[in-house]
Amino acid sequence: MDNGTNKHPHRWLALTAMSLGTFMGLLDVTVVNVALPTMVRQFNTTFTSLQWVLNAYTLVYAVSLMIMSKLGDMYGRKKIFLGSLILFVVASAVNGMAPSLLVLDIGRGVQAIGGAGMNSLAMALVASNFEGRQRGTALGILGSVIGISSASGPLIGGYLVEHFGWPSIFYVNVPVGIITVIMTIIFVQETPSYGKNERVDLWGMVLSAAGLFSLIYGLITKESHPHWSWLELQVSGWLVAGLVLLVIFVVVESRLEQPMMNVAFFKKPHFIGTVVVAFALGAGIYSFNTFLTALMQNYIGYSAFDTGVRQLTISIWSLILGPLTGILGAKFPKKRLIGFSLLVGAMGFLVIANAVGPQVSFANLWPGMILIGITNGMVNPLLNTAGMEGVAPQEMGMASGLLNVFRQLGTTVGVVGFGLVQDTRYEQYLSAHLSSTGMPAKMADGIHSALVTAGPFSGHSIAWSAQLAKTPFAHAVRQVVIRAYDRGMSAVALCAAVVVVIGSVAALALMRNQVSADAQTDD
Questions:
Q1: Res 242 pLDDT > 90
Q2: Contact 422/489 with Cβ under 8 angstroms?
């Protein structure tokens, strides 16, 4: 039934505002990576200390997604989106002026709350500002923005840091954010305040936040200490606490009349299929960007900006395919489009796994990167549309929030899990071949220990150090390090292929060919 939404003359400008907010919020998850070397010098600190500039955003972002989604459903998505946007802009300005690392860490956490509100509610706002086939097209465009934003960090961050310094990666959000605020106020239509007669589920908010925090903090701790056992109390304690808290959260929510999250979401095979795909997308594709960036910068030798330019091979497909997915999704079953698109990505990972070697260059990688880009460009927009199908208007914010939570959780799990796979293969090769370089045993043990401590991402800096260059074993050691890294990188690509295949099976087996009530409505 047409409620007049499609007669709103400025709906595409509203989509532009929501897309800008989503782009800024997701870009800031990755854009800081390229600025870390400059920040190390600016704050006279170490990479380990700076890790919380990244982790603070990741943690608070994931924890806030469901809470901001629920508040939007209850009190009006435009209000919460706008408040989140203003908070994000203010925090960005503070981060750019941060006089100390502590201020920057706190600012990043505050910024993440704003980013979570923008990203969790943009999808629901699009769904409520559009109807019929235009809704699919609009969600497809928003999915394109999601797809390109995560891959644009090295390109945009590299350019800004190189020409304007690290504060510019935060300052750039201020003018863009002000424009977005004005456009949101003028063009975005508000949704009803469905929670006028509801009580805020404080217990649900506390339990969901504590559970997600514990789970992701445990994964981050494991990532920071790859040689710790999973049974190490600092790791297992947080993970177990997170799982227990989330189980309690589900039990509590199932008994409340007005819960924060409707557990009936997870009784529907279709919705389960969409969140599994979201997890696979995060774990398989978005986390792989971290490893691909390290390969291109640390081992092939491209600058951050040059790496970002080459990664357009992946991200450009979101711009090309995103707007088309609305048309394709109306003509063909979304479950099949998503399922088979994920298999295309699996082939891309296999191509990269086969291409990685001592002489690898972009010429060897681009065919696989194109296939991964096609998957990203197809799946993200279709997933957004499929996730909204069959969802009551008052719960669209929570549905989009859950998709974002699983996508973010998948990214974190992928970075940690693939990192452990890479570390294992890397260390195995070093242990088996470093002794064959002709070095004295004591020297080989020392270099082995240093390489293992540095890990696959930074091992090249030791192999190409000035001290090692003075020895007759330098060339042999470098060849071993390169091959060790290649073994690990190939293993990561193969694992990513497995993850997206699992996502494909989930899409084809669990998702349904649903049609929303207004599916045939158009102008």
A1: yes
A2: yes
pLDDT, mean of residues 385-413: 85
Who wins on pLDDT, 201 or 212? 212
Q: Are residues 246 and 131 in the same domain?
A: no
Cα 230 to chain centroid distance, Å, stands at 24
Whether 492 is covered by a domain: the verdict is no
Helices 132-151 and 312-331, packing angle to 10 deg:
160
Give the integer Cα–Cα distance in Å for 118 and 120: 6
Which amino acid is it at 163?
Answer: H
Same-domain check for residues 59 and 207: no
Q: Are residues 40 and 147 in the same domain?
A: yes
pLDDT 10s digits, 26-55: 888 778 877 777 887 788 876 667 778 888
Interatomic CA distance for residues 388 and 510, integer angstroms: 15
* 95 phi and psi angles, rounded to 5 deg: -60, -40
Is 104 in the same domain as 236? Answer: no
Neighbours of 146 (CB within 10 A): 27
Domain end marker among 193, 227, 249 = 193
Give the helix ranges, DSSP H, for 434-511.
441-463, 466-469, 474-510
**In-domain check, residue 157:** yes
Indicate if 122 and 217 belong to the same structural domain: no
Task: Tell whether the model's pLDDT for residue 4 goes beyond 50.
Answer: no
Indicate whether 121 and 210 sit together in one domain: no
Is 76 among the domain residues? Answer: yes
Task: Decide: 32 and 154 in contact? Cβ < 8 Å.
Answer: no
The model's pTM is 0.86
Of residues 70 and 51, more confidently modeled: 70
In this predicted structure, the answer to whether residue 379 has a pLDDT above a threshold of 70 is yes
Residues sharing a CB contact under 8 Å with residue 146, sequence separation 6 or more, in sequence order:
22, 26, 119, 318, 380, 384
Tokens in use for 440? 């004295």
Whether residue 452 has pLDDT greater than 50:
yes
**Residue range of the domain that includes 449:** 426-487
Same domain, 156 and 241: no
| Contact in structure between 459 and 481 (CB atoms under 8 Å) | yes
Q: How far is CA 306 from CA 102, 346, 379, 437, 442, in A?
A: 31, 25, 27, 33, 40
- Mean predicted lDDT score pLDDT of the chain: 86
Give the chain's domain count.
3
